[in-house]
Design goal:
This protein has 11 helices and 23 strands. With 449 residues, the protein is an alpha/beta fold. Strands 2, 3, 5, 6, 8, 9, 11, 12, 14, 16, 17 and 18 form a 12-stranded mixed sheet that branches. About 5% of the residues have low confidence.
């Protein structure tokens, strides 16, 4: 049994590690807390780089308790691999934190326990919650005011509530306002405006923070100028040619708004494939969900609930198709996971992490000169030396040839889409040499027969 404690920072060490190995139990009796003025049990203040992990369990002893765990102003925290259960109210509360990860956490409370949010986040940025199981009596994850860049992937929720469409709309309120200005006031095409918003949201994910929030305070004329710069970025992505970049970089007003000097059309050209995949993910995981109520109004069409909204301009040459389905405001973004009806998969947050980028997006097509045999080990060794030990996921040489025949091509599967851009550096074809033999590399494109 452990009484209330408060761990105060800042600490000299940048990585404070707490191991949860046994079972930590809160006192069951209310009388044991008569002298406790804190509203939380285990409190961490200003502990940057906090790492908490272990196979143990934190038991808040149910309705006699307050929030089980409270993190305040703890930047770059890392909570992983432990169980927390039976909190009376909030199991984990995150407040005023910048940077953090919660992974492989098991939160467990009865379905009829009142107000037992799993994870409650407020006034925090850059928090990634993933690969966890949350069973509680209220919201699995509650995102409150003052939050930005909260990524949730691979979280199983149930019993408990997922994130409703209404909550997503509140979270993306400013994004929705700017989108409405583009379409209704500035008369931009709805499909083109979806792509523009996807570019801006992706830039925010890449660290160009508060772009849309800053933009919302500008005049319509300036928003129009910024939208045209975003369209220039999209045009740059569609071209295999080096863009004709003006002296101001082609992103002058966007750069000025962000007070950044590293943003230009060349940024998109040299990160072409990372940008395409990132924008596509934002388009399908954010834009397809947060504008479902206002798109039919803007387009002047009638769409029934749970029916797709027809969008001219899709499928798109680069970003493929997007399914935008009109939903009721109390609709919760969930779907069955793992074949267990009681456990529901929570979706609907900003962008997919690197490890769920499709294999095709991370694949290069290699060709070799006839008469100069290149082996699988030579291919792997070359690109491992050039781009790092973990750069290569697999090498698949030409198949269905005789043992003595020379492979003329191969597929190089990389672990990161960013390595594709590093290899090509804006070119359509890149040339490499291994042991005096040439290898030509281009982006792989699946051709289904």
């Amino acid at each position: 049994m452990l009484q209330h404690f408060r761990f105060n920072g800042p600490c000299k060490s940048q990585n404070v590690k707490v191991q949860i190995l046994g079972k930590i139990v809160a006192p069951a009796s209310v009388e044991d807390w008569t002298d406790c003025k804190s509203e939380s049990w285990l409190c961490f203040y200003d502990v940057h780089g906090l790492i908490m992990q272990g196979s143990g369990t934190i038991d808040g002893q149910g309705s006699a308790w307050w929030k089980a765990m409270f993190l305040h102003s703890c930047n770059n925290f890392d909570l992983r691999e432990f169980t927390i259960q039976n909190s009376q109210k909030l199991h984990i509360s995150i407040n005023n934190c910048n940077g953090g990860s919660i992974s492989n956490i098991h939160i467990n409370s009865p379905a009829d326990s009142p107000n037992t949010d799993g994870i409650d986040i407020s006034y925090s940025t850059n928090v990634h919650i993933h690969d966890s199981l949350i069973k509680c009596g209220d919201d699995c994850i509650a995102i409150n005011g003052g939050c930005s860049n909260i990524n949730i992937t691979g979280v199983a929720c149930g019993p408990g509530h997922g994130i409703s469409l209404a909550e997503l709309h509140i979270y993306h309120r400013i994004d929705r306002e700017v989108f409405a200005r583009l379409v209704t006031t500035l008369m931009h095409d709805p499909a083109a405006s979806l792509l523009v918003l996807a570019v801006w949201l992706w830039l925010e994910e890449k660290g160009f923070s508060s772009l849309i929030s800053k933009m919302s305070k500008l005049s319509n004329q300036m928003v129009n100028v910024l939208a045209r710069e975003a369209v220039s970025c999209l045009n740059c992505l569609e071209s295999d040619q080096i863009p004709n970049v003006p002296p101001n970089g082609g992103m002058y007003f966007t750069s000025r708004l962000l007070d950044r000097t590293d943003l230009s059309l060349l940024f998109f050209y040299h990160n072409r494939f990372s940008t395409i995949v990132g924008v596509k993910n934002v388009l399908n995981n954010v834009c397809a969900k947060i504008f479902t109520d206002i798109l039919p109004l803007m387009m002047g069409i009638q769409v029934r609930l749970n029916q797709p909204i027809p969008m001219a301009g899709f499928p798109h040459r680069l970003f493929g198709d997007v399914e935008i389905v009109r939903r009721a405001m109390n609709y919760v973004e969930i779907q069955a996971a793992g074949g267990r009806d009681q456990i529901l998969q929570l979706w609907g947050m900003p962008v997919m992490p690197e490890n769920v980028v499709s294999e095709d997006d991370r694949t290069m097509f290699l060709t070799f000169s006839r008469g100069f045999r290149v082996t699988k080990n030579e291919v792997r060794g070359l690109f491992t030396r050039l781009y790092g030990l973990d750069a290569v996921a697999d090498v698949i040489m030409q198949e269905n040839i005789s043992d003595d025949a020379q492979p003329l091509f191969a597929r190089l599967i990389l672990n990161s889409i960013a390595t594709v851009d590093r290899m090509l550096n804006g070119r359509r074809i890149a040339k490499f040499r291994v042991n005096g033999k040439h290898i030509w590399a281009r982006k792989y494109e699946r051709r289904d027969v």
